[in-house]
Amino acid sequence: MTALPLSNATLGQLPEEIARPTYDRSALTPGIVHIGLGNFHRAHQSWYLHRLMQQGLAQDWAIVGAGVRPYDAAMRDRLLAQDCLTTLIELSPDSARAEVVGAMVDYLPIEADNGALIAALSRPEIRIVALTVTEGGYYQDAVSGGFAADHPDMQHDILHPASPRTAFGAIAAALAHRRAAGHGPITVQSCDNLQGNGTITRQTVLGLARATDAALADWIDAQCSFPNSMVDCIVPATGPAEIARAASLGIADSAPVTHEPYRQWVTEDDFCAGRPDWDKVGAIFTDAVHEYETMKIRILNAGHQVIANAGELLSCATIADCMQDADISALFHKVQTEEIAPYVKAVPGIAPAQYVSLIAERFSNPAIRDTTRRVAFDGSSRHTGFILPILREALSAGGSVDGLALVEALWARMCAGTREDGSAIEANDPRWDELAIIARAAQDDPRSWLVQTGFYGSVSTEPRFVERFDVWLRMIWTQGARAALQSYGHP
């Protein structure tokens, strides 16, 4: 099959089994600027909007893409070359289905001072600015969870509010312009995997604004909306195999996205300047976002961290491979059942035990080539955000922490930078060099890993956790990760 270059001009020539926009893309007008045009956004928020547009709705809510890091320029070039269209390929265990999504209409230039982004956010027709900038990108203090005003990026934006380097600095600058011009507030919508993501986004934007203009901060606090939300869809990184898969379906797309046959979006209905009717295409508006996000973050996101480091050490290439490994799968099920699910409440339609089974099924989908390396990336943020809150709650409740201690020991061993077959694990954390030094020292003195109070805080002095961590890390170093897994799963 000849693969047609994806563009507006070729949409009508694509194979007939490939779904595509039925709306007039030239008639769309923007209402959303989205910062962070990675695979997740294009398979999730962009898809929900596209589905509305397919019904003839939300034609004035098209997305303008944006980025704040130099590496975003490559994605911009790829998407603009194909008229901002994206091929989504849904992968079930035994089938694949493709759809071209057209809700995005432009991608702003990537600039050091974010001038184009500030100008776009200042336009009166823009009513939502959304973000997918990773859970570690919100400038939270690692210990207190408060606004990290002393971070070099925040210090730069405080000293140079008209030429910020961060997304949050650009948002604050644009809100100052909107306030001065009388264009009104906008909704700032985080779509990252952070519990209370809207609350944290409010904290960062207000903290930055208050450091330069208290009156602006008061206006933002009173007028702008920061809805909390929970987002869910497993979306692997794109590489040559994904591009080749799109080509095999007849589409030459330089940035296709593969995804699982599951999506969920739960959000507070708190939009100060209007919103698309996403609930008409499956999104859930509710005041109970916290319960949904707790279930998802603790069982899915923490579940990823439960198995990813073991998978790296044992050379499992993908999350599905991890779930095929009997010892890693046993770790997942036992930790989930005994040490995570007890601290998760049911939500309408599903109990924690049912959700554990759903996640196990989703993780086991062999068609989703979600690499263990991708899931293990930035453990310093993901363990802090996903695992340690459960650990603290379990300790407070007097519950078992044996499996969670093993999970932390596996992370400490993984950060030493070698797999058990002797191969090297390439740098996979913003703090990798520092972590590697401490991880190697912990081979002889496991408790030296826990001295990292920026991660562990008071947990580092909890005897029940510390003792089991010490036992597990010593066993992993002396007998191997598999022996530790088998000891835990089959004591």
Report on this model:
- Its EC number is 1.1.1.-.
- It comes from Tritonibacter scottomollicae.
- Residues 31-280 form the Mannitol dehydrogenase N-terminal domain.
- GO terms for molecular function: oxidoreductase activity.
- The chain has two domains: 4-286, NAD(P)-binding Rossmann-like Domain (Rossmann fold); 290-489, N-(1-d-carboxylethyl)-l-norvaline Dehydrogenase, domain 2 (Orthogonal Bundle).
- The chain has 20 helices and 13 strands.
- The chain has helices spanning 39-43, 45-54, 72-81, 115-121, 152-159, 167-181, 197-210, 214-223, 240-248, 289-313, 319-324, 326-340, 352-363, 372-376, 379-397, 402-414, 432-441, 453-456, 463-479, 481-489, and strands at residues 4-5, 30-35, 62-66, 86-92, 95-101, 104-107, 128-131, 187-190, 229-232, 251-252, 257-259, 264-267, 284-285.
- The strands form four sheets. Strands 6-3-2-7-8 form a five-stranded parallel beta sheet, with helices on both faces.
- The longest helix has 25 residues, at 289-313.
- It is globular, with a radius of gyration of 23 Å.
